[in-house]
């Protein structure tokens, strides 16, 4: 099958300057212009922008906690219900099916679920497999489990830690490793209520810093393409900027990714002791080339916060809206909390909104700042089109600012920042840079040989509309969205690393599970066939 | 051996599929009673959506109670693995289904290796409305906490008040011992099920746990009344956004535990076709209501009253399965224990979908 997209403005910074040129797709892969060959399909995309399919590196789209949020909040689903469409279950509010549909309609073709507890990996993958159209990936959570913490406490060799992490990544079909408030979930079980970078987990005598540094080093040694994905301590509290700055400084020459930095952009200034430290954090990121971050932008309205940071979620119970929550002390890295929340245009909400935008606009390098709302924690991913508009138009920011709390905005630099993201910067931040960060060489650009994940947007003054309803979206060369509507389903792959397990580690794992849980290891592992989809996984190579 | 029947007559599987598809295609309001593993449930929900039907689980009554704890209230929970490893104080709440007795006995035979590592002690909160509960609790040497003539919900209320140093009109046996045990345990765990008592009692239990967490730590292990039913609830949630007792009116799913109570719909003749699934075997469709019945069940004989019966395999026995397991608090891949030729229910449902007008495959 040969497809030609003709007349469009191609925004593909990896492969050169923006220009009008044809894009060719041959059998699901981007190809050189076919001379003297008649295409099977020609799409006239004059007046449109052509980009690679977008990649979301941090969006909670599936797994135990997401599903518990659905269980806790059936009344919220009506608000998510779209107009009827023609594809199966695509009308089902906040379901896996709708997740794939809505992402595809915005031109997103790969999404990473960033928080998979190893023991519930099968559940996560069952959900991901029911998300249509897009490719998915997950990060395995480590850093609160007894096995990791015992290895570190007992000064076991780095090789043994590496073998364990490789086993976890392989057996859970993960693309990388995430640490969430390292050590805090373990400490919370012993009634510790606050936990900072240099605080110590009672049971193990280990600081959070030691856990983060050990995991970061191991991920780097193993050649896992995505650096350790760090959800730092003290999320959401006034003064958390100090923790974030200390965590950034702790990268110490080794790559590290900090998740949803907006939630750490708070100081203790002002009458309310809640102020913006975004400028300071942006400077810290700008000055440290080893660090990448995503934002976790807050947008206004009802959402639900979902996090494996159980200590933080427990402390947020009082802010639940509506007043019902689930707090789960899971096995090791599992568990977390579900706390519904409404971001209001009051002092606090306005400040959070502005902090996210400040970070977006003050961090200079679009290759190191990633476009997320930490769905659904800052806002549902369906708010992305409006967020693109805020980034690309200072007028849009000014207009929104007039609706917000002036005192809060006065505590920020936002009004003075006039930067507007260009389409090329958007393409870097949402395509090229995520592909590079995740080690996905086959996507994020429109060069020959890349998979044909292509998003075509009708150019217009209404930026949000442009990004909300892609004119065309191709997934692996298959036209799946036309005029902002999904035309048919296909099922993508879940991208994973597949390191060969160390035999001694497998034996150790067998003994550990039998001794500690009274169950054989096969209770916690699963074959690919358990997913019930044809070839549900695709392997991503390790860094050499 | 026959695996398909129209009425009481053995037929080929293809004929049975054709007959069942005809019934489905002409139904105005089909309802589905689910009892399958994850993949059977996925297919069944997709078919219900295709047909604009409604679905519930065979254990819908108790499942609805368990679901309501979350939809109406929430709570604090932990996993069986964490309870086993960390909790030196286990408090059984009311009646725990026999299917979970092995799990609790395994905890009784082990010692916590995390947290305070104290020798495990057991209590049992009992009510006048849970008469069978005490027998099993005695095997675990659990200290009873009960108040003469009071229901489980009342006992929980009295305990909660007592732990808050509030005066109560009735007293609970062994209360002081319980208070002391709570004070000495780093991570006490309350074990309950939807079968443990009525919804207000379960909410009271979560209130008690919330109180304990103001200054210390405590949590609960939820052991579903039926693992497969809970697995169906979780599957339904990710597929539709809603737990069972969901229907697809106007192509949109809606969750309404009253409106989509399948047994009520059958009784009130709101439904005109009942697709009854029972992969565990040995079950019969509930009595009451006389509407057309399609039976997809593990059986070697036609289901009485069914217009079409198709025999299907039992997940984890006749074929590989993915099922919820409360031993680990999540899904588990279960290899076939005794593989057979019986088809899995998912494949039958997919064949039914393909035999419907339009002949479209299901998305799962």
UniProtKB/TrEMBL annotation, chain A:
PANTHER family: COLLAPSIN RESPONSE MEDIATOR PROTEIN (PTHR11647:SF1), HYDRANTOINASE/DIHYDROPYRIMIDINASE FAMILY MEMBER (PTHR11647). One of its GO terms (molecular function) is hydrolase activity, acting on carbon-nitrogen (but not peptide) bonds. Pfam families: Amidohydro_3. SUPFAM superfamilies: Composite domain of metallo-dependent hydrolases (SSF51338), Metallo-dependent hydrolases (SSF51556). Coiled coil: none annotated. It comes from Phyllobacterium endophyticum. NCBIfam families: one_C_dehyd_A. Residues 42-487 form the Amidohydrolase domain. This is Formylmethanofuran dehydrogenase subunit A. Transmembrane segments: none annotated.
UniProtKB/TrEMBL annotation, chain B:
It comes from the Bacteria. This is Tungsten formylmethanofuran dehydrogenase.
């Amino acid at each position: 099958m040969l497809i030609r997209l003709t007349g469009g403005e191609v925004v593909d910074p990896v492969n050169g300057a923006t220009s009008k040129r044809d894009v060719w797709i041959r059998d699901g892969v981007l190809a050189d212009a076919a001379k003297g060959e008649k295409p099977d399909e020609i799409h006239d995309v004059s007046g449109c922008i052509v980009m690679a399919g977008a990649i979301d590196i941090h969006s909670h789209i599936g797994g135990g906690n997401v599903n518990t949020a659905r269980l806790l909040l059936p009344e919220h689903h009506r608000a998510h219900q779209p107009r009827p469409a023609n594809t199966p279950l695509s009308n089902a509010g906040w379901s896996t099916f709708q997740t794939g549909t809505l992402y595809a309609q915005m031109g997103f073709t790969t999404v990473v679920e960033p928080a998979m507890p190893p023991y519930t990996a099968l559940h996560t993958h069952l959900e991901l497999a029911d998300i249509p159209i897009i490719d998915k990936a997950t990060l395995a959570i480590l850093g609160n489990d007894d096995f990791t913490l015992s290895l570190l406490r007992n000064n076991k060799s780095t090789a043994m830690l590496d073998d364990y992490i490789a086993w976890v990544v392989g057996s859970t079909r993960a693309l990388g490793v995430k640490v969430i408030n390292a050590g805090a979930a373990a400490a919370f079980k012993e009634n510790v209520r606050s936990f900072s970078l240099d605080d110590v987990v009672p049971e193990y005598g280990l600081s959070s810093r030691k856990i983060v540094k050990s995991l970061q080093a191991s991920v780097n040694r193993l050649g896992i393409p995505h650096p350790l994905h760090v959800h730092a301590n003290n999320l959401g509290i006034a003064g958390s900027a100090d923790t974030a700055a200390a965590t950034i400084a702790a990268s110490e020459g080794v790559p590290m990714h900090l998740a949803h930095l907006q939630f750490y952009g708070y100081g203790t200034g002002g009458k309310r002791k809640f102020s913006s430290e975004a400028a300071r954090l942006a400077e810290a990121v700008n000055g440290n080339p080893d660090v990448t971050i995503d934002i976790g932008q807050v947008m206004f309205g009802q959402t639900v916060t979902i996090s494996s940071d159980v200590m933080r979620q427990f402390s947020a119970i009082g802010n639940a809206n509506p007043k019902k929550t689930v707090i789960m002390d899971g096995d090791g890295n599992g568990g977390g909390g579900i706390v519904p929340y409404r971001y209001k245009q009051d002092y606090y909400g306005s400040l959070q909104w502005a902090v996210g935008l400040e970070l977006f606009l003050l961090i200079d390098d679009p290759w190191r700042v990633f476009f997320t709302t930490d769905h659904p924690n800052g806002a549902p991913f369906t708010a992305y089109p409006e967020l693109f508009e805020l980034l690309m138009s200072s007028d849009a920011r000014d207009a929104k600012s007039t609706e917000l709390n002036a005192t809060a905005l006065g505590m920020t630099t936002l009004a003075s920042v006039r930067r507007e993201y260009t389409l090329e910067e958007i393409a870097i931040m949402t395509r090229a840079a995520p592909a590079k960060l995740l080690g996905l060489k086959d996507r994020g650009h429109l060069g020959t040989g890349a998979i044909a994940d292509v998003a075509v947007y009708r150019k217009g003054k209404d930026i949000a509309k442009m990004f909300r309803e892609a004119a065309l979206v191709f997934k692996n060369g298959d036209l799946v969205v036309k005029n902002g509507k999904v035309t048919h389903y296909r099922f993508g792959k879940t991208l994973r690393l597949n390191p060969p397990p160390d035999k001694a580690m497998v034996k150790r794992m067998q003994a550990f599970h039998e001794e500690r849980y009274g169950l054989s290891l096969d209770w916690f592992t699963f074959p690919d066939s358990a997913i019930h989809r044809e070839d549900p996984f695709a392997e991503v190579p390790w860094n050499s | 051996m026959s695996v398909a029947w129209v009425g009481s007559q053995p037929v080929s599987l293809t004929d049975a599929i054709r007959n069942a598809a005809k019934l489905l295609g002409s139904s105005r309001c089909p309802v589905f009673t689910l009892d399958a593993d994850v993949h059977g449930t996925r297919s069944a929900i997709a078919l219900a959506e295709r047909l604009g039907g409604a679905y519930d689980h065979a254990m819908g009554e108790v499942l609805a109670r368990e679901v309501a704890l979350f939809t109406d209230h929430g709570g604090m929970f932990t996993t069986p693995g964490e309870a086993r490893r960390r909790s030196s104080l286990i408090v059984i709440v009311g009646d725990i289904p026999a299917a979970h007795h092995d799990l609790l006995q395994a905890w009784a035979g082990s010692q916590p290796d995390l947290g305070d590592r104290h020798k495990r002690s057991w209590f049992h909160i009992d009510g006048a409305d849970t008469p069978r509960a005490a027998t099993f609790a005695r095997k675990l040497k659990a200290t009873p906490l009960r108040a003469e003539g009071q229901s489980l919900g009342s006992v929980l209320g009295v305990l909660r008040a007592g732990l808050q140093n509030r005066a109560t009109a009735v007293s609970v046996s062994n209360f002081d011992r319980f208070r002391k045990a709570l004070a000495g345990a780093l991570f006490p765990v309350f074990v309950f099920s939807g079968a443990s008592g009525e919804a207000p009692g379960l909410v009271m239990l979560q209130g008690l746990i919330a109180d304990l967490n103001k200054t210390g730590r405590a949590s609960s292990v939820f052991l579903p009344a039926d693992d497969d039913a809970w697995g169906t609830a979780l599957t339904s949630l990710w597929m539709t956004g809603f737990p069972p007792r969901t229907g697809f009116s106007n192509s949109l799913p809606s969750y309404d535990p009253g409106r989509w109570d399948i047994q009520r719909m059958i009784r009130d003749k709101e439904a005109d076709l009942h697709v009854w699934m029972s992969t565990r075997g040995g079950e019969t469709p509930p009595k009451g209501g006389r509407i057309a019945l399609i039976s997809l069940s593990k059986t070697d004989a036609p289901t009485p009253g069914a217009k079409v019966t198709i025999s299907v395999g039992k997940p984890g026995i006749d074929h590989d399965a993915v099922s919820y397991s409360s031993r680990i608090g999540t899904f588990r891949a279960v290899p076939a224990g005794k593989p057979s030729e019986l088809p899995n229910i998912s494949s039958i449902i997919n064949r039914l979908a393909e035999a419907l007008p339009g002949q479209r495959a299901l998305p799962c």
